[in-house]
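Async update (no meeting this week)

Hi team, since we skipped the sync, here's where things stand on the single-chain job. The sequence we agreed to prioritize is pasted below, unchanged from the tracker. I ran it this morning and attached the output directly underneath so nobody has to dig for it. Comments welcome in thread, and please keep replies under the output.
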Amino acid sequence: MSKNAKSKRSRISAGLLMFRRRKNKLEVLLAHPGGPFHVHKDDGAWTIPKGEAAPEEDLLTRAQIEFEEEVGFRPKTVQHWIELGWIKQKGGKIVHGWAFEGDLPEQFECKSNLFELEWPPRSGKREQFPEVDQACFFSDEVARRKLKSTQVPFLDPCEGRGDHVRCTASQPIQSTCDGRCDDTVFS
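Output:
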């Protein structure tokens, strides 16, 4: 990608962190990036479903759209969006996050938008790959290992054991199977 083309891309993204209660513990839904560059990556490669926002676009609306595009499910009965603040990823992109309590349907199958890439490199052949190839619920402990390190602060406001499961944020976050899924896997 040329330097000029990259500068036209948004440096702001917005995403959603779905959480649920299972066996008196909090679990969060993470997405594994699709495509040939991520096929063998696991710990430290997962992300919250997110995507780039256009200038002046409402970030929560963008986060909701990206969640549906990347996971293939539209949460319809969300009672409360919890603003988690923002983080800065290693490449400089700012990611704004919101959490919500929800679950996926029992017969859920991850269906993501596709992107096109020259593959193999320098072959002149173009292939399509899903933006997300898996969506999994993980316990807090496992999610902290799977998630990109710069996104781990999104988990900090979410905690809980027993009947006291909660996810709240009071201040903005600021932070510079084959064993892949220990819990529920949707691919």
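Quick observations from my side:
Residues 41 and 72 are 22 Å apart (CA to CA).
The radius of gyration is 16 Å.
Reply here if anything looks off.
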